[in-house]
Backbone:
């Protein structure tokens, strides 16, 4: 098996084994384009790595924990991180390693190279994996090049690439990756060119930055842009930008630098050079017979073609969800800006709005005013949910980015060990629970109060002591939990919960000791400027992790306010509308409150079709999810569908729910383990479970349908398995 | 039927339909024992059929205990089996078919295994029915679903 094929040796029949990028480069080289000298590691080498080492099956096992099409983006992230770690921890078979070293050494010696993905099917007219697979610039020496080939192979399974394959319904099992190795053309001006503009059929586009192309491709350096006439090349318009940075080679890899003041004033290309780039893109179009998206660089006054691929439909306006998937892949710089906006503007605004909205006492309002408050709360929730998806969730990528850097450098056995380094000293959710535990502790030390509270819980009268105690706890907990409900029944439920908590032996929270040692171990992997960057990245990741707790809590406040107003509306409308009052959406409830004659349409009831076939009933014996909190727990399931289910929670039970929402986390100190339908290592439930050292499995399909309250469960948080022993 | 019941029942039906031979687990004289048998099944999944001569160890075992397990799987003896293969175990009481029941069972069994014609018709062969109480279906390496069959 040849492990390295020079561009000039490639033939048409090699195309499926070298991928579109390598094939296009070899064609361009033969046609006389200036293409840096290079070669390709064909897909057989990838297969010779993942087959004999068992890696291929490990990947497929990871991706088949549940139907691939039903994996959520957060689960994809986690799977991608695990898979990347498999690659980092699995050495190449000796013979393959030796062959790669020797061939690469012979061809490239100590010259710096670019190592890029070239997966078959990667750049076709139907799909573009641009930006989803990894490339590395300025890699030097055979050993380092082989390591980077392995990282490019791993990027076949990056979160973005997986999400894209899910969307295009591409086969996962057959995926393989070839890798291009090319001498580095260290350009002083670089860019891309579209022979046909994605947005304007009669035009071509040229974009250019100072330095290397990387900054333009990953969005950290803004390009100047030239629009030309597609048929004549005549310049229509030049759009200059504020030029601040350039990406250049560092001793190893690349770095973004501030641009010299002199160059800030100058466009990277003069109009003549932009014309030359346009000509080159049109030549490429002629060669391949379709409009091309070409990467180029000027090095030493010579124009090099770095890559050419068809302009895809995707470039003409990405479908909403793919664009969103891609938006999750934020760069470090981008995340810093996002952090500032979230911490400085968005979270304070969210907290303030929740406070403002809570000022109205819905029980005191007349119907028209209640409709107004209900509408305002609904509008606020919709608006903040949008912010949550567009800004808060992408910011969570900070923790992922950190995880990747951590795993690359530290190479830990557990790919999620980095989370221990991110766990903050304090979290809003656990602070709130600490106040609750403190109140339960007071109860534990005061037998008289405990006895009075027990009488009250069982339906007896409260005393001055119990009233004062419960009022104090309610005030202390603030507006965030479903634990504090209006009316006597609400107070009895709170009393019951506190008594349950007081009876439970105080659990030990996992120690945070070792955080300093972990931090040192991580930072010691870097030197000089890199170390400073690593420190900054850690700080950013901690903010990202913390926000996963806080954003949920604050958004939960708005949700709770809406639910309170909707509950009040339902109570008032019940006399007139009967049972459907409880099922109304906010908009319908508003109309019904304002107009006494309004009759909302009945929500459609789900109808079951007539049963056919055998008389059978299915139940689950063992369910598979993701291991989200290490630990092993056995206990009785409490499936939470409603607030009442939560208030009846008993110490030592296992919480089974669709998704832990922030209003629910007060039960966590009572839990023995957590099972959640929603999947992910960095979702709110998993974060809280880790804080309390609880066994946690997330991403269990239909968990609340297949498990019933009262079932005896074993939760294996190491393997992500839930065993249902006895049905309750 | 609930969606989940139907999904699991359909998956079991498809697996039984895709395979011709299963592993019969019996127990006798204090020892477990496994044998390969050709099987067939009722479309309602409530019964599986297999045939054996009465002189076999499996026949004496199942006569002793009256209960068996039958494992049917679609592994291909490749690495991919770990994530691709499904395995199904049916358990329940077993009885020999006689009279009209035997005629009906034989027609189902021979439709699936035409080459067993002479074997099934031999007077020394017992045609047996496993009245399934429940199936255990294992997929995705670790997921286990149970399908209860009403008597």
Residues:
């Amino acid at each position: 098996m040849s492990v390295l094929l020079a561009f000039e040796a490639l033939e048409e029949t090699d195309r499926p084994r070298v991928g579109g990028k390598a094939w296009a480069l070899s064609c361009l080289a033969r046609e006389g384009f200036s293409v840096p000298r290079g070669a390709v590691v064909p897909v057989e080498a990838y297969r010779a790595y993942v087959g004999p080492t068992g890696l291929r099956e490990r990947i497929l096992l990871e991706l088949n924990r549940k139907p691939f099409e039903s994996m959520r983006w957060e689960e994809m992230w986690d799977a991608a991180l695990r898979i990347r770690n498999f690659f980092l921890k699995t050495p190449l078979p000796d013979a393959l390693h030796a062959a790669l070293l020797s061939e690469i050494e012979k061809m490239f010696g100590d010259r710096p190279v670019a190592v890029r993905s070239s997966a078959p099917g990667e750049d076709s007219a139907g799909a573009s994996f641009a930006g989803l697979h990894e490339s590395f610039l300025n890699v030097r020496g055979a050993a380092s090049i082989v390591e980077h080939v392995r990282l490019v192979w791993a990027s076949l399974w990056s979160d973005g690439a997986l999400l894209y394959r899910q969307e295009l319904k591409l086969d996962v099992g057959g995926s393989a990756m070839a890798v291009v190795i090319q001498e580095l053309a260290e350009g002083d001006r670089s860019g891309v060119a579209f022979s046909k503009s994605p947005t304007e059929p009669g035009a071509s586009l040229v974009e250019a930055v100072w330095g290397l192309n990387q900054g333009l491709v990953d969005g950290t350096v803004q390009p100047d842009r030239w629009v030309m006439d597609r048929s004549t090349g005549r310049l229509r318009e030049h759009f200059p930008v504020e030029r601040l940075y350039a990406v250049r080679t560092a001793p190893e890899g690349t770095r973004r630098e501030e641009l010299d003041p002199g160059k800030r004033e100058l466009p990277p290309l003069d109009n003549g050079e932009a014309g030359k780039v346009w000509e080159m893109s049109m030549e490429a179009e002629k060669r391949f017979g379709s409009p091309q998206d070409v990467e180029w660089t000027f090095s030493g006054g010579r124009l090099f073609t770095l890559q050419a691929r068809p302009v895809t439909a995707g470039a003409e306006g990405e479908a909403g969800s793919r664009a969103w998937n891609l938006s999750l892949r934020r760069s470090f710089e981008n995340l810093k800006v996002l952090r500032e906006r979230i911490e400085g503007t968005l979270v304070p605004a969210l907290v303030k709005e929740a406070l403002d909205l809570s000022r109205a006492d819905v029980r005191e309002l007349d119907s028209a005013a209640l409709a107004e408050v209900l509408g305002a709360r609904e509008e606020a929730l919709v608006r903040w949910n949008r912010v949550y998806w567009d800004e808060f969730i992408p910011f969570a990528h900070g923790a992922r980015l950190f995880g990747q850097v951590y795993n690359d450098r530290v190479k830990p056995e557990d790919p999620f060990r980095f989370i221990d380094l991110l766990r903050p000293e304090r979290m809003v959710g656990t602070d709130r629970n600490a106040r609750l535990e403190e109140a339960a502790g007071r109860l534990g030390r005061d037998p008289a109060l405990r006895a009075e509270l027990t009488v009250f819980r069982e339906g007896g009268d409260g005393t001055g002591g119990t009233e004062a105690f419960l009022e104090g706890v309610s005030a202390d907990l603030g507006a965030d939990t479903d634990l504090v409900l209006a009316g006597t029944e609400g107070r009895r439920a709170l009393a019951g919960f506190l008594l349950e908590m007081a009876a439970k032996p105080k659990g030990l929270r996992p120690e945070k000791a070792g955080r300093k040692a972990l931090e040192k171990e991580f930072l010691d992997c870097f030197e000089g400027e890199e170390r400073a960057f690593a420190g900054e990245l850690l700080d950013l990741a901690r903010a990202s992790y913390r926000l996963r707790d806080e954003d949920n809590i604050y958004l939960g406040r708005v949700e709770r306010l809406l639910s309170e107003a909707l509950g009040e509306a339902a109570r008032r409308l019940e006399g007139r509308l009967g049972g459907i009052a409880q099922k109304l959406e906010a908009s319908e409830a508003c109309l019904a409150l304002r107009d006494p004659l309004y009759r909302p349409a009945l929500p459609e009831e789900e109808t079951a079709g007539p049963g056919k076939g055998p008389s059978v009933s299915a139940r689950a014996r063992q369910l598979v999810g993701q291991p989200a909190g290490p630990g092993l727990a056995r206990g009785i399931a409490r499936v939470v569908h409603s607030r009442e289910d939560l208030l009846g929670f008993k110490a030592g039970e296992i919480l089974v729910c669709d998704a832990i929402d922030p209003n629910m986390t007060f039960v966590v100190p009572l839990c023995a383990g957590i099972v959640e339908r929603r999947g992910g290592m960095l979702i709110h439930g998993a974060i809280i479970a880790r804080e309390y050292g609880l066994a946690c499995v997330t991403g269990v399909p239909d968990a609340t349908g297949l498990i019933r309250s009262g079932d005896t469960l074993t939760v294996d948080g190491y393997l992500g398995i839930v065993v249902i022993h006895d049905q309750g | 039927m609930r969606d989940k019941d139907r999904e699991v029942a359909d998956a079991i039906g498809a697996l039984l339909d895709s395979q011709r031979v299963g592993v019969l687990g019996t127990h006798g004289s204090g020892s477990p024992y496994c044998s390969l048998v050709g099987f067939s099944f009722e479309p309602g999944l409530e019964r599986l059929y297999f045939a054996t001569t009465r002189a076999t160890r499996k026949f004496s075992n199942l006569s002793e205990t009256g209960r068996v397990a039958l494992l049917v799987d679609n592994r291909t003896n490749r690495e991919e089996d770990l994530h691709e293969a499904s395995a199904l175990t049916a358990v329940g009481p077993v009885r020999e078919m006689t009279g009209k029941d035997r005629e009906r069972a034989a027609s189902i069994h021979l439709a699936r295994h035409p080459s067993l014609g002479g074997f099934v018709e031999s007077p020394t062969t017992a045609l047996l029915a496993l009245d399934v109480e429940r199936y255990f279906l294992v997929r995705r390496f670790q997921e286990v679903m149970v399908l209860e069959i009403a008597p």
